[in-house]
Amino acid sequence: MFHVERIYLLNKNCEKFFKMNSEKTPYLSCIDYTVSNKKFDLRYNADYDMLETFPQPEVEELDLYYQSSDYISHTDAKKSIVDKVYQIVKKYALNKKLKLINSFKNSEKTLLDIGCGTGDFLAICKINGWNVVGVEPNKNARNLTKSKINKKSDSTIFTDINELELEKFDVITLWHVLEHVPDLETYILKLKSLLKPNGILVVAVPNFKSYDAFYYKQFWAAFDVPRHLWHFSKTAIQKIFIKEQMHVEKILPMKFDSFYVSLLSEKYKTSNSNFLKAFYIGLKSNLKAIASKEYSSLIYIIKNS
């Protein structure tokens, strides 16, 4: 049984750190290529085998780092080659995600998708018989979601997870969301309170131990500082959730992420898309992961108990 110590609020700037016996050590320095061009450090937390972005923006500042037309999860843009690749991969991934949640044994098929973006996942789930609720803080993305699931009422798509109080869900999904959350401990407690007994939490996050992360280093697009506050390993996810009696039952790969992330990383590294080079690195990452199981992104199936 893993032992996980408590998370504390250490200062008035709301920077969250894990309490631990060893010091956090420097790992990399990265640039915010999307909005500010500011430099942020990644520090290694040995107790959890994870990285932490430093400094972390104050809570009230975080939204400023999402104000960009390049932040594609908030739009349906198809302008650049990166946009087009993202949209192609997204369509394939939607069917894989639907197949995954349909494999769970649920009586009422109630689903909460947190960080639902432009609503494509909610829309396909609704068509396939799920009772869906979404959470999306971005107004433009939230409006797109409402149009896709044919709902005009604000009661279906919420701005914040704390607006949900009495609801209980069979399945809660977070597709690349947990790395954005300032206060992990409080957030995980809220997720647990929203799950039915034996409900399933699906968490997808980047994996900084993948080959493409190793290859691109400070240019690896999935570091995405400072929007990504935490950078998880398999050990970190297991330790964080076990404290709340939530157990990782299965870990699945997101094989297409290595190609998209490599394409964006090439742009950061060379100022060119370098499609063939990005495809090669993405493929190499997946091939190496056959043995290591360290894919670019991983899906964790976590059971409430």
Q: Termini distance?
A: 15 Å
Mean pLDDT: 86
- The fraction of residues in strands falls at 15-25%
Write out the strand line-up for the largest beta sheet, numbering strands in chain order.
Answer: 8-7-6-9-10-13-12
Roughly how many Å is the radius of gyration? Answer: 18 Å
The beta-strand count equals 13
How many helix segments? 8
Structural class assignment: alpha/beta
Write down the overall geometry: globular
Question: Secondary-structure element sequence?
Answer: EEEEEHEHEHEEHEHEHEHHE
Q: Estimate percent helicity.
A: 25-40%
Largest sheet entry: 7 strands, mixed
User: What are the segments in which pLDDT stays under 50 over at least 5 consecutive residues?
Assistant: 1-22
